[in-house]
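Sanity check

After download, print the first record. It should look like this:
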Amino acid sequence: MDLIVIDESWYQPLPGLKTSISAGGVVIRQQDGQIYIAVVQESPNRPGYVLPKGRIEPGETAEQAARREIEEEAGLTDLQKVAELGSKERLSYSKTMWKKTHYFLFTTEQIDGNPTDPHKVYKLFWLAFDEYQSLFWPEQRELIAAHQDLIGEYLSQ
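Expected structure tokens:
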């Protein structure tokens, strides 16, 4: 498998590309004083961990889409919304579409998930919060870094 390097070129829209609007989430849980983030890995042909997210379907709100995508990709259904985290934009993995993704912060006490996506094989992992820099997409790392205080503040309540 070729190693894909994500550089600045992934964050500059190419002329003529369609835009895909998506939604997803940073799902956190706390156990024994440690914070964990739900991440998924697509089939083995895709490197690294990513936050669960996907396209908003007609008639869905961004939050509804985020919840559906988290269930499909991570198998997590017991979600409590904490906050909206804003959106991030980049090229798709294949560089054939411009993607705008709205993110939400959720908490859960659910540990095991059974992904339900009918088209791809996803696997749920719980990443220790201090390891979020190992996420594949730089904008997902930036999203979490920008909201560290909010996450810590919420969990300390």
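If your output differs, re-run the checksum step. Summary of this record's structure: The chain has a mean pLDDT of 92.
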